[in-house]
Write a structure and sequence with these properties.
Length: 140
């Protein structure tokens, strides 16, 4: 079983500015209501530490492409139990704006147990982070 949740927002700032804020992990506690803390080397193949409200995990970075995409994959215990591939995509939009796409692809045998909360609280967390990112980028 597979499931994807996805959210989007338009930010009145360039992809370079959005990337600057998104990749400044040390400032996440100041503005990010969803990813409370992120640390480690964001290079493909490396593990990072991510703290969300009520949970922490160490996913492996898949993509860290400046001003374009940041993607990681995490797993609960072993592969195939409950896996998530989280992504942030930045696309240039008209008038120097950025289309920010934030989502995650889930899979694994425990997915049915989490499906409802993914559609509610997890998606809500994505949207809150998007709005906070927009506010931070547009106010700098």
């Amino acid at each position: 079983m597979n499931k994807e949740i996805r959210s989007e927002i338009q930010i009145s700032a360039s992809p370079a500015k959005v990337w600057q804020v998104l990749s400044a992990f040390e400032h996440y506690p100041e503005w990010n209501p969803f990813v409370k803390k992120l640390s480690g080397e964001p290079a493909p193949g490396k593990k990072i530490r991510v703290s969300l409200p009520g949970m922490g995990f160490t996913p492996r970075v898949l993509v860290f492409d400046a001003e374009r995409e940041f993607r990681w994959k995490g797993q609960l215990l072993l592969p195939g139990i409950f896996d998530g591939e989280h992504y942030f995509i930045l696309q240039p939009a008209p008038n120097g704006c950025t289309r920010f796409i934030h989502g995650e692809k889930f899979s694994g045998i425990l997915l049915p147990l989490f499906s409802k909360s993914l559609d509610t609280s997890t998606l809500s967390g994505f949207r809150e982070m998007n709005q906070a990112l927009k506010q931070r980028c547009e106010s700098l």
